[in-house]
Write a structure and sequence with these properties.
The protein is an alpha/beta fold. Helix content is about 45%, strand content about 25%.
């Protein structure tokens, strides 16, 4: 009962955030350990609640999926990240779930964004490895299409979930980010 009530309240917070542009990317710098210079940025989804508190995606993404606004969250992060890096020289990465990749709506949104952006060759889409891949052909299609526009692909948190070495060669990832538990 308490869990249900907590989820209900969090659902209201997520809806309010989506409707009032309170979903935004936080940009985490990725440093070159030899030079201590920023090499790129990772765009991380955050939600600002009604009291100004910042919520982690661990809290709000599952709720966004349940209340069917997750696609809006994804498109918002993509849109704002491209806007931020459009006129810079920095590379940047955006996390995508398998659910994002197999969604026709998100696929078309990403391709349209890549077609119309000067930042297309500087973006890396990080596929969350913790998600199971049920339709590998859609994943392959996404990867080949985004690469046509110069975007790169990374496997994020490799080893944390459905590690399948056969997929690694088929996915033609540019980067593999190994999960901390393996290190």
């Amino acid at each position: 009962e308490n869990e249900y009530e907590k989820n209900l309240k969090l659902s209201e917070v997520v809806r309010h955030a989506v409707e009032n542009s309170k979903i935004l990317p936080y940009y985490q710098a990725i440093l070159d350990t030899k030079t201590s210079k920023i090499r790129k940025y990772e765009c991380l989804a955050r939600l600002i609640d009604g009291s100004g508190k910042i919520l982690s995606p661990v809290l709000f993404i599952p709720i966004a999926k349940k209340i069917k606004v997750y696609n809006i969250v994804t498109k918002t992060i993509i849109d704002r990240s491209f806007e931020t890096f459009e006129n810079s020289d920095f590379e940047f990465s955006i996390n995508l779930s398998i659910e994002d990749i197999v969604s026709g709506e998100i696929f078309n949104f990403v391709i349209d964004k890549l077609k119309n952006s000067k930042a297309s060759s500087r973006v890396t889409f990080e596929i969350l490895e913790s998600d199971a891949i049920e339709d590998f052909k859609k994943v392959q299609r996404f990867i080949s299409e985004v690469k046509r526009y110069g975007a790169k692909i990374a496997i994020d948190d490799f080893g944390s979930g459905y590690s399948n070495f056969a997929y690694l060669t088929k996915m033609q990832a540019d980067f593999i980010k190994i999960d901390g538990s393996l290190i």
